[in-house]
Amino acid sequence: MANYGGWKPYVPVAERRKKAERLVAGASKAGRTLSPIAPSRGAIAKTFWGKAWCDNLAHYSDYDSRLPRGRTYVRNGSVIDLQITKGKIHAQVMGSSLYDITIDVAACPEKQWRALSADCSSSIDSMVELLLGKLSAAVMGRICKPGTGLFPAPKDIRFGCNCLDWAVMCKHVAAVLYGIGARLDQQPELLFTLRGVDPSDLVNNTSANLSGAGKAVPTSGKLLDNAVLGDVFGIDIDMEPFADANAVRGNRTRKASTSQKARTSTSTTSKSSGAVKSASKGKVATPAAKSSPTAVKKTKGNTGPGTSKATRSVASEKPVARPPATSKSAKRRA
């Protein structure tokens, strides 16, 4: 029964919760999937992204009087369904009756997103770190900064609820906004879906340095064919700068090859000359045929202290004349 002014009577929290449980069970039997926000005590959000979303709601100064009621509703489990898609939120909240809430969120402006991605891409190495919020305070502060970061400002949001409250943000809408913070604890990627942006744009992408004017040309290694490289990365690459570099590198290679051949030829000539010298030395050093002991003895006797070694050597090799042998019979005849 409605009281004065058309407002429905207050429904205790326990009764609202029982109604919500019955509605969820009935929807499940009918084949509908609801995504409720579980009742909780204490902080609504526990992780970085959930807390950052709830903290951002504090900047909605025009709705200060409505936000506390919304926190009470979401803690009581009154949000029985919450669906987040690109630029839109659909929810159902159990109050004195079941209310349907629609929230439209403007997409992040392209220029703002490009600036944000450029500032953060060199500091974020993986999607896992981004979604877990395990980044430096400077990077996360940049992403969460009101006005220029990823979170929507009040002007970017439009609310709709079929309750009788005349306020733009009623307690049911406030409950849904805080429910988003609780949902981001489990699915932080939904924030990027809601704002219509790709989180991979924030992650460090080294392949962007492979092309562009003014980039250094590789000085070593082999360059892949442009068609093969395009197939691998799915991009078109202008290979003219690399062709010039290959020509320069080819000239250097030919010069190095010519120099190497010259050094090899010189080394071969040196080795041949050394072999000839060694052979010549070997002939000089070959010992002469042995002379007779008599010749050696006479030669030694005829060499004086002034005679050189070469002279002594030659003298020792000259044959010595011997007197004719006289037989014993000839002596007897004589």
Summarize the structure.
With 334 residues, the chain is an alpha+beta fold. It is built from 13 helices and four strands. Helix content is 49%, strand content 8%.
* Percent of residues in beta strands: 5-15%
The best one-word shape is elongated
Structural class: alpha+beta
Largest sheet: 4 strands, antiparallel
| Total helical elements | 13
Give the fraction of residues assigned to helices. 40-55%
Number of strands: 4
Within the largest sheet, what's the order of strands?
Answer: 1-2-3-4
Q: Overall pLDDT, averaged?
A: 73
Order of helices and strands: HHHEEEHHHEHHHHHHH
- Oligomeric nature of the chains: single chain
- Rg of Cα set: 51 Å
Provide structural commentary.
The protein is of the alpha+beta class. The chain has a domain at about 5-110 and about 150-195. It is built from 13 helices and four strands. The chain has helices at about 15-30, 50-55, 65-75, 110-120, 125-130, 135-145, 170-185, 190-195, 225-235, 240-285, 295-300, 310-315, 330-334; strands at about 80-85, 90-95, 100-105, 155-160. A four-stranded antiparallel beta sheet has the order 1-2-3-4. α2 (about 50-55) packs antiparallel against α7 (about 170-185), α3 crosses α7 (about 170-185) and α11 (about 295-300) runs antiparallel to α12 (about 310-315). The longest helix has about 45 residues, at about 240-285. Mean pLDDT is about 75; it is low at about 205-225, about 275-305 and about 305-315.
List keywords for this structure.
4-stranded antiparallel sheet; alpha+beta; 8% strand; single chain
Sequence-ordered SSE layout with sheet pairings:
Blueprint: H1 13-29, H2 48-57, H3 67-75, E1 79-85, E2 88-94, E3 98-105, H4 110-120, H5 127-132, H6 137-144, E4 157-161, H7 171-186, H8 190-195, H9 226-233, H10 240-285, H11 293-302, H12 309-317, H13 328-333
Antiparallel strand pairs: 1-2, 2-3, 3-4
Helix pairs in contact: 2-7, 3-7, 11-12
